[in-house]
Each structure stands twice: as structure tokens, then as C-alpha cells.
Amino acid sequence: MLDLNKDVKYVKGVGPNRVKLLNKLNIFTLKDLISYYPRTYEDRGKPKKLIECIDENEATIEAVACSMISEVRLKGKTMQKLIIRDETATAVVTWFNQTYLKKVFEIGKKYRFYGKISNKFGKISITSPVFDRIDSNKNTGKIIPIYPLTYNLSQNTLRRIIESGLKEVQGNLKETLPNYILEEYKLEGINEAINSIHFPKDFNAFDIARKRLVFEELLSTQLALLELKNSYMNEEKGISFKKEAKMSDVINRLPFRLTNAQLRVLEEIDNNMEQEKPMNRLLQGDVGSGKTIVAMIAAYKAVKSRLPSSNNGSNSYTCNTASRKF
Q: Contact at 8 Å (CB) between 36 and 162?
């Protein structure tokens, strides 16, 4: 049985050391892991010819190794160089402190590289690219997710861990939205969305997954706010303003006519104010549309309803709702 609350340290590839790094990213459970979404993506598919590469742009290259790795010792580090070519040009690939690469590349074999291209004065080079054999797409040849990281945790490591987490889930996530909503809004299932948001086969698949997950997040937020509002309305008691305090006393004395929209809103506010339920209202409108007069008329009803009796004939009174004297 799938346990989304399983401690992330038990996911393949984590262990006691990496779990501390994941915890720094607020990843504590399997659920946290699979819902740790990428911040962006790199399109490492669609390879370019070397001659087409633009200086300082990142690109995917498919090329043949023309030499063995040569190594140069520098102050405190080593530099590895490889000559590659395709049918259009030759390039130099450089890494630093990657001695193991001497055993990786074979002359005449084709590889795929992804990195920033330097193309100046007819000389093409790539520094510290990721690479794969042509028959592999582990690091290239597809869309790669890029995650927020913490110190000592690399993108490759986190991607492998998230892949392990998704394999544990294996399409067994329980659907959280009813079928009629999925059908009405043309949303894909939660299992497909979670997989595609991490490792989309193309950007169309990413858009479909994002639509589903954003929809669910917004729906959950709206339902939570509605529940909070209903709870507030049912449990909290508001001020019931007097029916005898009529807004029409002000409306009829105005030197201009209110619009139908203003009158409609005032009728709604009047009804709300006479109930014992709290009223929360946002009055929206363009500049000059008459929001202020609507607010003033509502304030008049509040003031008239709270007017205390006076024996000295004074016309001074306090509006408690505004905490000031009128």
C-alpha cells in the first residue's frame, strides 16, 4: 500500500547523509518529494549543427569523438580536453578536474553534448558540458527539469532521487478531483500530471500538467476560503443596523441621480446591514464611478443606527464603526 507519509530517507538514493540536505529544502516525506516541482526547464533535445551554434548560447550537439582525452595540469587542478566533430565543423570540449573522463570516450564513437557554446573567430568550444552516448538520454536529448537546490546537492542527484520517488508511486496516487470536474475542464489525472510536471516529454505535456495542478491549487484555496467564510458567518454575530435608518433619506436629497448600478449595490448593502451576520464587501469600480458616495450612504445608515439618545440637545455623536466623531 502506498504510504505518502513515508520518511524520505527510505527512498532509494537518499540515505542518512542526503536526507539532511533534502530536509533543508523542506522535503521530509515521499509526498514532499514528488510535489517538489521544478523552477524551470532546459530543452536539451533538438540538436544543432556546430556551424549553427551562436556564441554564448546553450545548445545540444551530436558529434563524434576525434581524439582521446588529453589532460593538462594547472595550478591546483587539471584540465581535460576532447576534440569532437560533426559534418559541419570541429570543436574543443573542456572540463576541469574530471580525470575519470579519460576512460569514458572512445575515438569514432558518437556522443551528445549540452552546454554553453563559444563561437569566436571560427573557433568553436564547449566548457563543462553534460553528455551522453548517442543511444542514451540520461542527461540530454530531452527536456530536463531544473530544481531549487541547497549547498552540496546537485541537479543530477536530486533528479535521480525524484525519479526514484516517482517509481515508488507508480501511478498509484489517489485521484483528488471528481470525474465531472476532470471532464468539464479537460484536466488530466493526478498521476499523469505529477509525472509530466517533473519529466515532460514535450512542452505541450508540461502545459497540460501545469493546468491540472494550478487548477487544483486554486480550487483548494477557494474552497478553504469559502469554508472560512461560512464558518465566520455562522459562528460570528454581526451588528444588525436599524431598518428605520433609511438610505433613501440621503439618496433623495442628492443634487444628482445615482446610476442603476449604484442603486443595486446600495440595496444589497442595505439588506446585508440589517442582518445579524457580518458583512465583508469589496466595492470595485473605475475612477469617478461613484464608489465614495455609495460608501458615504452606507456610513450614514451605520451612524443613524448607532445614534445615542441625548438630553442636552447636542448634535454631536459617535460612529463606532469608524472610530471617529462626525
A: yes
User: Could you give the CA distance from residue 52 to residue 141 in angstroms, rounded to a whole number?
Assistant: 18
Query: So what's the pLDDT on residue 190?
Result: 96
pTM for the full predicted model: 0.69
CA distance 78 to 99: 8
Extract the C-alpha cell encoding 89: 565543423
Distance CA 79, CA 126 (A): 13
How many helices (H) and strands (E) would you count in the chain?
Answer: 9, 11
The β-bridge partners of 96 are: 79
Q: Are residues 160 and 32 in the same domain?
A: yes
CATH number at residue 53: 2.40.50.140
* Exposed e or buried b per residue across 171-195, where buried means at least 16 C-beta atoms within 10 angstroms of its C-beta: eebeeeeeeeebeeeebeebbbbbb
pLDDT category at 74 given cuts 50, 70, 90 is: confident
| 280 assigned to some structural domain | yes
Domain assignment present for 63:
yes
pLDDT, tens digit (0-9, with 9 covering 90-100), for 121-169: 889 999 999 999 998 888 898 999 999 999 889 999 999 999 999 999 9
Please state the domain count of the chain: 4
Q: Which long-range contacts (CB under 8 A, 24 or more apart) does 273-276 make?
A: 273/239, 273/240, 273/241, 273/298, 273/301, 273/302, 273/305, 274/240, 274/241, 274/242, 274/243, 275/238, 275/240, 276/237, 276/238, 276/239, 276/240
φ/ψ of 274, rounded to 5, equals -85, -5
**Which grid coordinates are listed for 300?**
450614514
Place of cell 525519479: 163
Domain that holds residue 14: 1-42+144-172
- Residues 124, 158, single domain; the answer is no
CA-to-CA separations, 195 to 38, 177, 281, 297, in angstroms, rounded? 12, 17, 41, 55
